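May I ask you to review the protein record following this short note?
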Amino acid sequence: MRIASLLPSSTEIVCALGFQESLVARSHECDFPPAVKQLPAVTAPKFNPDGRSYQINERVKAILQEATSVYRIDGDQLKALAPDVIVTQAQCEVCAVSLAEVERVACEWLDIPAQIVALEPNALADVFQDIQRVAEALNVPERGHALVAALRQRMADIADQASALPKPTVATIEWIDPLMAAGNWMPELVEMAGGRNLLGRAGEHSPWLTWDELAAADPDVIVILPCGYDIPTTERELPALTQHPRWQTLRAVQAGRVYLTDGNQYFNRPGPRLVESLEILAEILHPRRFNFGHQGSGWRMLEPTAALG
């Protein structure tokens, strides 16, 4: 079997199911497990991904006014690789190449029709269903059941331990400039980690956020997890937050409870490592109870001097 995976989370799912050696193509963003970076990338952005978060947002908006996706797919290369299965997504036009584009390329370029598996995770249950759908497409439904059961159990163990702990209020920031709160599965992860989510609704797309709304929520804890950003990149973007006049008035800032996370590797990838994302949140919210070893790599506390701009 020859598999092309066109988004990072599906690549992680395919590998977790034991099919890493069957991958023949990846997206330009697929980087875990690290060995997949040796595979040919058959997608690329239509915009310059370098620059500040505000600039990137403006470029993406401009492209979406004229196209259905901000990414392109290399039909020639995909045809040469001849996949039997293509795993993509139908959820978000800024997350990966669009389903319509994948279907067009598969129809026009592939001599033998490939099976297209389009994932659409809006909530945590959808992530588990998508894992099972990939397993069934790869003819190993039993592996899907086993993987999902193991992930659910790890999450349930954390949620059970956190259920009796105090529940600080939490704001999760998915984009810095302009502000966006995290939706989809993130509110569920916050609640499972022993927090009370204030912004964004489970199962719904991440909403844009005003500074007035953030100030009115005034959370106990702020977790910054920008989509596609690691911790160093997020640090570079911090002045858009820390230099805003409302920032220093926030309870979380004054209490030193602002945290930077690797939003690229965790949180924004709806696959097996959402369990590690939950572990990170549990460590942040209840450091005396949970220690999974993610501090320093998956997250770190924002130093009070930096938080105060």
In short: The first strand starts at residue 3 and ends at 5. The chain is about 40% helix and 15% strand. Residues 166-307 form a domain with the Rossmann fold fold (CATH 3.40.50.1980). The radius of gyration is 20 Å.
